Amino acid sequence: MTKPRIGVIISSTRDTRFADKPTGWLMDKVKDHPELEFELIDLRDQNLPFFNEPASNLWMPSSDPDAVAWQEKLAGFDGFVFVVAEYNRSITGALKNALDQAYKEWNRKPFGALAYGSLGGARALEHLRLIGIELQMVPLRNAVHIAAGDFFKVSPLGANAPMSEIEGNLEGSLKSMLDELTWWAKTLQGARA
After folding, report:
1. 78-105: per-residue pLDDT in tens?
2. Where does the NADPH-dependent FMN reductase-like domain lie (predicted)?
């Protein structure tokens, strides 16, 4: 069996997004992971229209070529890590639209998260977990949350310090999430084979 492939999806598309900083830290931490292979997926680069199909691709093929290309991209992954920005107590509109553009390609795949915001993106991540259940995904219990003092220490809204100044607070939860993601990705990869 090949190493499970994990897509790391940046959920914010704003020009001034904070996501690039924690995503860079995450990708550096997972680049030499012994059991998983990670690939960055930036929603800015996907050219996804607003969902406008007669039905989900569970029921009929999508007609928009950009949606089909997105579905084909997702199909090649065995799991996901979402970089979750919390906007108004939920996920971004760009992420919700990206989730809605596919269905079968999300099924039976685990996902973790690196969430951020004043409350660590916890409310947005809870919404994402509910959506993931409907998409027949496996939301992981463990996640990395950048919250409160840590968030304002590394955010441009605060001190804009490097991620290295808070990574000691994040590494335990990152290890727990990656251990859980590895187990589920391998287990479900074998079940889908």
Report:
1. 999 999 999 999 999 999 999 999 999 9
2. 4-147
Phi, psi of 116 (to 5 degrees): -145, 160
- Evaluate whether 156 touches 18 at the Cβ level (below 8 Å): yes
Cβ proximity of 133 and 127 under 8 Å = no
Which residue carries 């074998």 as its tokens?
190
Q: Is the dihedral of CA 115, 182, 6, 93 positive or negative?
A: negative
Count of CB atoms situated within 10 Å of the CB of 125 = 26
CB 118: neighbour CB atoms within 10 A? Answer: 15
Give CA–CA dist 47/155, Å, rounded: 27
Q: Which domain holds residue 46?
A: 5-192
CATH number of domain containing 147: 3.40.50.360
Residue 147 contacts residue 118 (beta carbons within 8 Å): yes
CB contact at 8 A, 142 and 111: no
Task: Quote the pTM value.
Answer: 0.97
Cα 175 to Cα 177: distance, rounded to the nearest angstrom: 5
